[in-house]
Amino acid sequence: MEAEAPPEPATTAAPEGPSLALEFALDPAAAARLARHPGFAGARAGRSRSHAEELIWLDTADGALAATGLVLERPRRGPARLLRAMPPAGAGWSPGTPPLPATEALPEGPTLVPIAAFSGRRTATPLATPDGAVQAVLLAGKLRAVADERPVARLLLEGPQEAVLGLAGRFAGDLALLPPGAALAEEGRALARGEPPRARRRGPPNLADAATVEAALAGAIGHLVEVMLVYAPGCRLGLGPEGVHQTRVALRRLRSILRTFRPASRCAALDGFDRGLKTLADRLGPARDWDVFLGGLGAAAAEAMAGPNGPDKRMAQLLKSAEAKRQGAYHALRAELDGAGFRRLVLDGIALLHRRPWHVPPEGITAEERAARLAEPLADFASALLDKRWHKLHEEGEEIETHSAEQLHEVRLEAKRLRYAAELFAPLWPGKPTRRFLRRLAALQEDLGVANDTEVARGLVASLGPAVPAWAVGAVEGFAAARVAPARRHALDTWEGLMACAPFWAET
After folding, report:
1. What is the DSSP secondary structure assignment for residue 307, as one 8-state letter?
2. What are the domain boundaries of the chain?
3. How far apart are CA 269 and CA 401, in angstroms?
4. 201-313+324-375: which CATH topology?
5. For residues 429 and 265, is the Cβ–Cβ distance under 8 A?
6. How many Cα atoms are found within 13 Å in the side-chain-facing hemisphere of 474?
7. Rounded to whole angstroms, how far apart are CA atoms 129 and 373?
8. Where are the alpha helices (DSSP H) in 296-404?
9. DSSP 399
10. Dihedral sign, CA of 393, 394, 397, 401?
11. 3-state secondary structure of 103
């Protein structure tokens, strides 16, 4: 971005509320066009100031700083500073938070050596919005290691909270910007080592240190939005099924958390966020279903139908058509993840963490009642909710040996709801009883899931159309049906084991 005479500045309201800094990763080609973007050019409130920038990141030869999430950054100008490139494991986290100065002291003794560097330009531009003045800082150039380099661009927006969130929302409409999956220093370390950057967050959130309902809600949202950002880039054909699977699991956990905490946090903003998550779920579902079918039942059925001369041609045609369906599902999913809808969904999640809209009570609830519910000790809230879901599972499974397929499906759904909540709150009750309960609950859900997978498979092969021989469709349906009876018997045994397991949240 070249320094140039600014246009007439927009009217800017006095900054109000807390300040906020958000960092975004930009495609380097898009970064080169940022100055001409209507939303950027229209908000410019002064000259851009640009200068060459070089950042060098240092660590010990054995990576002692990186092991604790730290890095020493030496800029072209100014003193070196110790940064936290990875957030502490038990700390709350909001995606888009830029690296912060570390509170730890630089360890003495080991010699620090350069591990990676950035070379490029830093351009700062003042922007005006109705909610206040925002400083935009673009870092564009190359990330360099000894044997490799690649172009990178980061955009930092800093100013009043509403101004930053509003500006980011406008940019997200047509700019491919998302919070980065890793700090620039961590990407440099990974480039130097020839490995992927370490994920800030993986798996389910750990709420062991969340004292209240609100702390748990905010911590879980921040954690799982970050997990989605980690795995969404891997939702591509040729990269295997893990990206889709883990993105879908994170999304399901996130939706489950919104339902879990709804009694204490019900508000329109959370409901709107959940609708956006459902839209993404509708894209993830078909891709995951075809992955499971082609990697499981479909492949097993084709192998079982193979003859002495190799695969059955009719089954081969079915698998070929199924693969075409999977490719279509992946293309639709990728279009969703690369589009403005996903970017706005992520920003909605970040906005929830900063605005905390659940503080405003809905009609019929006083502010005092809402505040008390949000401040309720998490263990008390969790015990009551787990009790409710445990009793609901008991009710659905009463006389389970006589259940129809539809009734077993309802048991499975209740088991899934209990499992998500139990996994979420398990860190509050660490120990063997908790692990044993979760193992048995997971086994029940898996056994009951065989029948559900059979129904999904039937629907999938039925959707393949007349190009697939009817014999192959019937063969897959028959193969799938043959798995149901053994799985049902095993599920009944698993049910008995779970019923004999004391609820861990009731342990004293």
Report:
1. B
2. 19-56+87-106+115-194, 201-313+324-375, 377-508
3. 43
4. Four Helix Bundle (Hemerythrin (Met), subunit A) (1.20.120)
5. no
6. 3
7. 36
8. 297-305, 313-337, 340-355, 367-374, 378-396
9. T
10. positive
11. coil
Q: Rounded distance, CA 424 to CA 91, Å?
A: 16
Strands (E), 97-226: 100-101, 112-129, 132-144, 149-160, 177-178
* Residue appearing with tokens 């969703």: 336
Ordered per-residue pLDDT tens for the chain, 508 residues: 344 444 444 444 454 579 999 999 999 988 988 999 998 999 999 999 999 999 999 999 889 999 999 999 999 888 899 999 998 877 788 999 999 899 888 877 778 999 999 999 999 999 999 999 999 999 999 999 988 999 999 999 999 999 999 999 999 998 999 999 999 999 999 999 999 999 999 999 999 999 999 999 999 999 999 999 999 999 999 999 999 999 999 999 999 999 999 999 999 999 999 999 999 999 999 999 999 999 988 999 999 888 888 889 999 999 999 999 999 999 999 999 999 999 999 999 999 999 999 999 888 899 999 999 999 999 999 999 999 999 999 999 898 888 888 888 899 999 999 999 999 999 999 999 999 999 999 999 888 887 777 878 888 998 998 889 999 999 998 888 888 888 888 889 999 999 998 899 986 4
C-alpha distance across the termini of the chain, in Å? 63
Helix (H) or strand (E) run with residue 71 in it? strand 70-75
Does residue 108 sit in helix, strand or coil?
coil
Strands 49-60, 112-129: parallel, antiparallel or unpaired by DSSP? antiparallel
CB count within 10 Å of CB 9 equals 14
CA dihedral over 435, 437, 441, 444, signed as positive or negative? positive
Residue 251, H or E segment? helix 242-260
Which DSSP category does 182 fall into?
A: S
Which letter does DSSP use for residue 209 in this model?
Answer: T
Could you give the C-alpha distances from 478 to 119, 145, 245, 299, 482, in angstroms and in order?
61, 56, 27, 14, 6
As given in the structure block, the two tokens for residue 500 are 């004999």
The highest-level CATH class for domain 377-508 is: mainly alpha
